[in-house]
Design a protein that fits this description.
Shape: globular
Helix content: 25-40%
CATH class of the largest domain: Alpha Beta
Distance between the termini: 75 Å
CATH superfamily of the largest domain: 5'-Nucleotidase, C-terminal domain
Number of helices: 22
Strand content: 15-25%
CATH architecture of the largest domain: Alpha-Beta Complex
């Protein structure tokens, strides 16, 4: 009875007393064929991938709308979206992975739109924020446990585990026979090891026996109002993980992707040295498609007793509308943006998005053809409404996950960890909270967009490279484009802005190198500019203290390094010696396997997985990062309004020039 009550609470749909209508009829009529191109209304949004199918559907359905998609790195979509909104540069359609974060403060209420009720009841209910619908879910995945059914059968486990006790017994049986484990003894790992996903696993494991029950629903609502605590609710969530860690089936030190130390889940599942993982329906499909030896199966989150099992929904992102669209004079833009979301909320719109982003499931209530079938155990949860969507803000998820890993590592008790989370939830933590320290001022926008720092000179790329050279005193400095993830906008610059622009913590080093090594390094930076995915590789080098030109890739020919000169136009000496500042990552600190080090083996002074570099000498190591360099740069130029614009450091030559 308890679990049925919880399911009813979580799957209750907010019924809106509005007449149903088509996307065009709901918010405005589409433009006529006779309208000029100048009359098209632009609607802007950020997304990590090419959305050509959805964009074409929008513009075919509404000829008066010009949907403009700016591609941005997925790792920083949340931070960049929020920063742009905060500075008045936000896109019309807001993209976020965590709608309960601060981004909700910039979103319009969509509750009165009939398309808001087009989604599955459980998803619709979980997305309500203060009783309002602010965001809609994109297609995505369902998640749960994936296990090697072939090896489980060999271990004598004929039936899928029905609760956590039986799941642990399956691991015990496999371990006793040496099945599904490598030399490290590990049988379980989380497939996607970013902290948000790790935290989502820890939280999801508590759904069947707490968060999915009526008392868990009440607790979550009280927590939202800051009337309850994590210590009072989440005190049994690590029971299974602790049991697996104590038996050696789970390695806490490799559960999070710190410096590439995570378990290679795909390879180990396919070669039979990992029995169990937490991942998505799509990953299950990949495993079964690539393996001829093993058959893999999937389980939802299981109860410790007899409560109903649950799956978790993982939308690719959530979309909302920028509240600035409601300002006077923007009626046409608001109407156009609403029509885009209305089209998204149809089977046709969902199908186009699925085709664009490679998702496997839609969360519409109406049936949408899926390229991947939901496996039986999860399908039952979906059909009966036992679907949970983790809705804690991203920063809180990060902090929660970090503390839970500390428990598994034996560094904290669960009580201490939950007390830490409560303190952070109520008071914040300067290690996690956005740093609101005023760093400096910029005189104009220095924009990161459409991966520009990975293919051409930009103001933001020049600034980062100059900051590195100024901090280190090297003759030249180079910033790999993949480490630059955000813009700086005219006005005040805060510590949080620097965290978004340069989020990685790879320390800087200074090398003494021959000029010929620099030529080889620059050439390597051009090797992944043109990829089938359309996303250029992050190894492209932004430069300070040196200028270079290259021929753009064209007609199947790769990019080609052309000239190198000094900033004053004097010749660059390939036989001479220069000091350069780069990250230790490029020098092999994390090795060069699996694309670590971005292929800069000519700079290797650390790794034993590649030959040590010739004509390269390590001058000194630092503990400073790109972000530290930027902060010091603003301190050194205190009182100045900083603005760098492209000045010819990097010249791109087209094939015909």
């Amino acid at each position: 009875m308890k679990r049925r009550l919880a399911a009813l609470i979580l799957t209750c749909l907010l019924v809106l007393q509005l007449a149903g209508c088509s996307p065009a009829a709901e918010t405005g009529s589409q433009g006529s064929e006779g309208e000029s191109a100048q009359a098209r209304v632009p609607v802007t949004m950020l997304y990590a991938l090419d959305l050509s199918h959805f964009e074409a559907l929008v513009e075919e359905t509404y000829p008066d709308i010009d949907l403009q998609i700016e591609r941005n790195a997925p790792a920083t979509i949340d931070g960049e979206s929020e920063r742009r909104l905060r500075t008045g540069h936000g896109s019309d359609i807001i993209t976020t992975s965590m709608p309960t974060g601060d981004v909700k403060n910039y979103a319009l209420d969509l509750s009165a739109q009939s398309f808001a009720s087009a989604y599955q009841a459980g998803i619709s209910r979980s997305l309500l924020i203060g009783g309002k619908t602010l965001f809609l879910p994109l297609p995505g995945q369902y998640s749960g446990y994936i296990y090697n059914g072939t090896l489980a059968n060999r271990a004598g486990v004929a039936e899928p585990p029905a609760n956590t006790g039986e799941l642990l017994s399956m691991l015990d049986a496999a371990a006793a026979q040496g099945l599904g484990m490598g030399s490290d003894g590990v049988l379980f790992a989380i497939e996607s090891t970013d902290m948000t996903n790790v935290s989502s696993y820890f939280i999801g494991a508590q759904v069947p026996d707490f968060l999915g029950l009526s008392e868990g629903v009440v607790w979550r609502e009280r927590l939202t109002r800051r009337e309850d605590s994590f210590s009072n609710g989440m005190n049994h969530g690590l029971d299974l993980s602790v049991a697996m860690a104590e038996r050696g089936y789970l390695n806490p030190a490799r559960i999070y992707n710190f410096r590439g130390n995570e378990t290679p889940v795909l390879d180990r599942m396919l070669n039979g040295t990992l029995l169990l993982t937490y991942s998505t329906v799509q990953f299950l499909d990949t495993l079964n498609a690539e393996s001829d030896e093993y058959e893999f199966a999937m389980l939802p989150f299981l109860s410790e007793g007899d409560n109903h099992s649950w799956t978790t929904a993982a939308p690719a992102a959530f979309l909302g509308l920028n509240a600035e669209l409601a300002e006077p004079g923007r009626e046409d833009a608001l109407d156009a943006a609403l029509r885009v979301l209305a089209l998204l909320s149809t089977p046709e719109g969902q199908a186009a998005f699925i085709q664009d982003i490679g998702a496997s499931q839609s969360y519409l209530a109406a049936e949408v053809p899926s390229p991947i079938e939901i496996p039986g155990g999860l399908a039952d949860c979906v059909s009966e409404g036992y679907v949970y969507n983790v809705q804690f803000p991203a920063k809180l998820l990060y902090y929660y996950g970090r503390n839970m890993i500390s428990v598994l590592n034996g560094e904290l008790s669960l009580e201490e960890a939950l007390a830490n989370v409560d303190r952070y939830f109520l008071e914040g933590d300067e290690e996690v909270e956005y740093d609101q320290t005023l760093i400096g001022v910029v005189a104009g926008d220095m924009i990161y967009e459409n991966y520009n720092v990975r293919r051409e000179e930009t103001g933001i790329g020049d600034l980062v490279a100059d900051a590195i050279r100024e901090l280190t005193g090297a003759d030249m400095a180079f910033a790999n484009g993949g480490a630059i993830r955000g813009s700086l906008y005219e006005g005040n610059v805060f510590g949080s802005d620097l965290d978004v622009v340069c989020p990685y913590d790879n320390p800087l080093v200074v090398l003494e190198v021959r000029g010929s090594v620099i030529r080889e390094m620059l050439a390597n930076g051009l090797t992944l500019i043109d990829q089938e995915s359309g996303i250029p590789g992050g190894r492209f080098l932004n430069a300070s203290g040196l200028c270079y030109s290259y021929r753009a890739p064209e007609g199947g020919k790769p990019a080609e390094l052309l000239d190198i000169t000094m900033p004053d136009g004097s010749p660059f000496d390939e036989t001479g010696t220069y000091t350069i500042a780069i990250t230790s990552y490029m020098c092999g600190a994390d090795g060069y396997l699996d694309n670590n080090g971005d292929g800069f083996t000519m700079l290797n002074v650390y790794s034993d997985t590649a030959p040590l570099a010739e004509d390269v000498k390590l001058v000194r190591e630092t503990d400073k990062t790109f972000g530290d360099a930027l902060q010091l740069y603003f301190q050194n130029h205190n009182g100045e309004a900083i603005l760098l614009q492209p000045e010819g450091r990097i010249k791109v030559v087209s094939g015909g020039d």
